Amino acid sequence: MKRLLLPFLLLTGLVQLTAQVRGTVVVFSEDGDRFFLVINGLQYNQTAQTNVKAENITQEWVKAKIVFEDQAKAPFDANIGVKYDMETTYMIKLNKKGDYKLAWRGEAPLPYQPVAQTPPPAPAPMPAPAPAATQTTTVVTQQTVTRTDGVAVGMSVPDGEGGSVSVGISMNVPGMNMGGTTTTTTVTQQQTTTTNVGTPPPPQPQQPQGRCAYPMDQRSYSQAVTQVTEQGFDETRLEIAKQVAKSNCLTSAQVRDMMRAFGFEETRLDFAKFAYPYCYDPNNYFLVNSAFEFESSTEELARFTRP
Q: In degrees rounded to 5, what are phi and psi of residue 261?
């Protein structure tokens, strides 16, 4: 028997150590007495009040101490329970023996408060473009011009009076070497071209994957799903789920899992259509189809999301 009891006690202690509790306790006085509330040695109000709230309690069972402003009333201790994401209310009252005690009066879910997400760092400012460099290109061309002087031919022509007249003729026939003088002239032309060589633009910052910068963190999402599933009617669940989708950025897988909290196919389809504009990775939106029971719903969603 002892061999069975020891592992059980160890397992129970391990569960208690690993349990994560975050709850709120509200204590009020039935008779309107002003008091101080101390939980596990921590005082939660600096001035005496008739109604005190202790938030962010991380233990399942705590020791509470009530100290009255009226010193004629003796302080007293009580062990009270705290539930995860619940606000538990206790009342200070007298029992039949005339002693004060804390009596449980009810509990309610804490309002959903998403954990603040750290936005990604802003992209570094673009560096100023470097001044354009100047590149000069010089082109040198040469042109050779050849000129051939014609051949001078001299002859005597009778003048009709018994004498003669000397006549000189200069001929230059293209393509025929007439034996004249050839002159070659080389003309050099230089042309300079200036070109501005710009600096290539820097790479652009990477854009977010979907319609928003970052998706909802898993802890906040789990709290939101809990709030949705605790509602009694699909209509109320849908209203809260739409608030979550609109105020945050859900992944396709988170939309799919949220859809499974609804009891009716029509409600699942309504939420899938509403959440599509707020999806972080719309290219993976086909994942939500697994939450449908009927093929007609998948087809209708496909028509709705088709560009």
A: -80, -15
